[in-house]
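FORM 7B: Structural annotation worksheet

SECTION A. Query
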Amino acid sequence: MIKKLLCVDDDATTLMLIKMVVEKASFAKEVITISNGREAIEYYHTLLQQLPEGKIEYPQLIFLDLNMPIMNGWEFLDEFIETLYPNFPNTNVVILSSSTNPVDKERAKKYPIIIGYIFKPITVDLIKKLVK
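SECTION B. Predicted structure
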């Protein structure tokens, strides 16, 4: 079981489903939900401000949607890797998307922090495969 999971998706129903499935699978102790990439970057900047005060627990895994308003998943990844990843080096990402576009799957392979690409909706079985 991981300590913290960050879910970044603009669909409230998807976020609710993720929380339910994660709880049922006993996958994470805490699930943080955010509705777009910009808010996720701001969340990490808030964590960054807490670093000098001592060791903080940050999400070990991010479930990331690709198609979101304000800042999409690709834009989030680019900014996170460039500016924040050095401070949060144990962070991995799983793309959780409705996009079946093979270009997206190929593009995901270019990001070393992406450890999986899952098509929505998420299920307990999919989460169990992640654990393996």
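SECTION C. Observations
The chain has one domain: 2-124. The two ends are 12 Å apart (CA to CA).

SECTION D. Sign-off
Analyst initials: ____
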